[in-house]
Amino acid sequence: MSIEEALQAYLIGNAGVAALFGDRIYPNVIPQTSPLPAAAFQTVTTTGDDTHDGPSGWTEITLQITVDGAAYLATKAAVRAIYLALRGYSGTLSGVKIYYISRENLIDGYNEGSKSTTIRQDFKVQYLEV
After folding, report:
1. b or e along 37-65 (b: 16 or more beta carbons within 10 Å of the residue's beta carbon)?
2. % of the chain surpassing 90 pLDDT
3. Domain boundaries, position 11
4. Is the pLDDT of residue 48 over 90?
5. Could you tell me the CATH number of the domain that includes residue 31?
6. Residue 12, pLDDT above cutoff 90
7. Number of domains in the chain
8. In whole angstroms, what is the distance from residue 24 CA to residue 30 CA?
């Protein structure tokens, strides 16, 4: 399972996130017909670690999670639920060994097309690629 699939499954299964999003956490793009709040995730950067013997398997990605919501404060609450689920996480998700997750960035915005609040947060995820 990929790191993205593991994180998606983890977020959908997290009680605090599921209470606000249900299963509306999508790869890459939030469908236009999705009820709000909804989230989409995408990998923005990927770096790996090589040794003299070849790849070590250690990988770090920046995962951007975009949340669209109907109102600013409700969207902020939805963003916070994702943040609380991911911050400082370490452990194994669906066979993927995660060393640490930290939030690196938080950006408020507005989606003119859907007339919704859009908030993006970037997470550094350090894990062992298998």
Report:
1. bbbbbeeeeeeeeeeeeeeeebbbbbbbb
2. 82
3. 3-128
4. no
5. 3.30.2000.10
6. yes
7. 1
8. 8
How many residues are there in the chain? Answer: 130
CA 71, 72, 73, 77 torsion-angle sign: positive
3-class secondary-structure state, position 81? helix
What are the backbone dihedrals phi and psi of residue 68, each rounded to the nearest 5 degrees, phi first?
A: -110, 135
pLDDT for residue 130 is more than 70: no
- Say if residues 121 and 65 touch (Cβ distance below 8 Å): yes
Q: What is the pLDDT of residues 53-102, one digit of tens each?
A: 777 778 999 999 999 999 999 999 999 999 999 999 999 998 999 999 99
Give which of 29, 2, 105, 21 is closest to 62, Cα–Cα: 105
